[in-house]
Amino acid sequence: MSATPADPARSPADPARSPAVLRATGLEVVHRTRSGPLHAVSGVDLTLHERRTLALVGESGSGKSSIAKALLRLPAPTAGTVTLDDTDLSALTSRQLRALRPRLQMVFQDPLSSLNPRRTVRDLVAEPLDAHPGLLRGRDRLAVADEQLTAVGLPPELFGDRRPEQLSGGQAQRVAVARALAAEPRVLIADEAVSALDVSAQATVLNLLRRLTEERGLASLFITHDLGVVRAVSDDIAVLQLGRLCERGPTEAVLAAPAHPYTAALLAAVPEPGRPLGDTGLLPADPPSPLDPPSGCRFRTRCPLADDRCAAETPAARPVGPGRTVACHRPLLPVLDRAGFGSAPVPAQRP
Amino acid sequence: MATVEIAAARPARTARRRPPAAVLAAAGWLAVVLLAALLLPLLPGFDPLHGDFSAPSAPPGPGHWLGTDAGGRDVLQRTVAGARASFAVAGLTVAVGLLGGGVLGLAAGWFRGPVDKAIGFATDLLMSVPTLILVMIAVSLRGPSLAVIGSLIGLFTVPAFTRVVRAVVLSLAERGFVQAARMIGTAPLRILRREVVPHVAPAALTFAFTATTVAIVAEGSLSFLGFGLRPPQPSWGGIIAEGRTTLGSAPWISLAPAAVLCLTVLALNYLGEHLRSPSRKATVNR
Lengths: 351, 286
What we know:
The structure holds two protein chains of two kinds.
Chain A: E1 20-33, E2 36-49, E3 52-57, H1 64-72, E4 79-84, E5 87-88, H2 94-100, E6 104-107, H3 121-125, H4 127-131, H5 141-151, H6 156-159, H7 169-182, E7 187-191, H8 199-215, E8 219-224, H9 227-233, E9 236-241, E10 244-250, H10 251-256, H11 261-268, H12 308-312, E11 317-321, E12 324-327
Parallel strand pairs in A: 3-8, 3-9, 6-7, 7-8
Antiparallel strand pairs in A: 1-2, 1-4, 4-5, 9-10, 10-12, 11-12
Chain B: H1 2-8, H2 21-39, H3 75-111, H4 113-127, H5 131-142, H6 146-173, H7 176-184, H8 188-224, H9 236-243, H10 252-276
Helix pairs in contact in B: 2-3, 2-10, 3-4, 3-6, 3-8, 3-9, 3-10, 4-6, 5-6, 6-8, 7-8, 8-9, 8-10, 9-10
């Protein structure tokens, strides 16, 4: 926990030199509801790089989990493409997709629910090996399970024969991580994976995810509503507001000086010891309904800076620093020209 | 930190409470009836079809513990032989119901949408058919046999089995571990077999107790109405029917098998109720 993302010993290489593993472009997720179409995700582009963690941050209902499901095609997004190591997932048959699934693993929010209560820990961790015997490569399935349990800090001789009900929340979540590791993933998605845990267990799991991303060369997506844990786990951050990305960039830079008023408001809402809880600066409007999102910028109804242009035009992502973009007509940081935007992890789609 | 967690997590031992006395008594009764039905016919001198004409309608006493019927046949022996018929019908019923309802319920709950709608419609249709009347028609056409009666009663328990199974599958599909299995890329049939069926089984087996009682009572009603197994082949309903004309002079002929039937149904219901009760650690709800 002592290391910070700026620590060169821990922080991975420049994103430009770290290969992209998972690329999502133009993701749209529309849920059909009784009250009409619900635009959960609108035009989101994401890239996950090897040995790097991207934190996807936003309020409840901003579409974070919809993005995770869309990436896994559980179910498939309404529109947009997801490519994993240059394989377009939408072009695969269901059998091909199933064969590729081990490379795309997810850890769910509720650790206990994601483990079959009738099976032992060892058996649960071996599940990917049972589904894909090719992963065994001649090894014994239980030996592989024990190896992964050790990797997540659960001694197999103590935990291997337990059942999920005999685990604490943090232990159960580590079992879920071990199961994901047994699949030998390229991408690890953690959807609110520590939100249900108490603080000490959170720290254990966060450190574990951080370490595994490095050691196993994973490309990680860490989904959370809690900006407090973002600093500890991620290299990059993408802020989601009502289904659209409003700001993204290196975690340290974004948290130090947010460019989007929404990011600034989220940061002001994070409680910190020794600091009085700041005014979030939000207008007292209710968060708008995704069934009927505001025209133009979807944040404008709560934004203290909004003007007529924000209602008329959807803001495009524009560069505000090295590897940073913001989708805002009235950003808190000056917009750079294209020259200052050479080393971005993801090029802005409409510069 | 890890050591603290390990120390805190006790090896949880689920307290197994002793089942209540009524449940033990029910299980004991069922064991007696089943063992008698299985073993007594193997004894020499067991002959429920031929009577001792020197002692017609003899009251219960030594020699004939439950008396004899108008033909001098031993009522106990006939009741035991009738148990075989009743349990054979019930077994067939449960087999047909479990298989049919299991497959339909799994399909409806797993695929949902149009499949669910179609299965729901078919089972509703089946439920609207008056069961006993249809079985009576079938028996008059095909003749009375354990196979016809058992499989038809079984057919009519399919909708109920389907509903029980479908409900559990629907609730499971939302559970994290089924989602996790999909995420891992486990094949659908394997998910059904490994993640879904083991969680459906307790509910379905519990319901099998109810279906057993339904079958026993239905077979008894059919035999009583003369649409069951042909005399002299004994079945519980048939023996009760035979004795009804002499209820005044020789009540044991009807009352003995009727009491056994009642007690057996009661015992099955008690056991089924117990298996279903939340006081027992139900795997279904976890």
